[in-house]
Predict the structure.
Amino acid sequence: MKPLDTGQLAAELGALPAWTHDRTRNALHRRIELEDFARTFGLMTQIAIIADKRDHHPEWSNVYNRLEIWLTTHDAAGVSQRDVDMAREIDRLLPGDF
Ligand code: HBI
């Protein structure tokens, strides 16, 4: 699995307005805040099921109703197409959340 080059990454980020490139972690990053813990953990459960099916797992941090997600491909040591695809899947779980 190859990482995206700078141009590819910029192009993909243009179509993922909720995501930024975290240079420190070399990852796609999104911060989500829902109404309460139950909804947030429910979202994490949905993401976990998709991630395990895809064999592509997020790095994340949850505090009550806040969730931070970093998508990076360990096998590629950077952001790959798999991270972009996963970001799109996560966005699909949050309709109208932009
Ligand atoms: N998840 N984010 C991420 N990156 C990987 O490279 C990765 C993964 N989940 C499973 C996985 N790789 C497997 O292919 C093995 O490396 C365990």
Summary: The first strand starts at residue 20 and ends at 22.
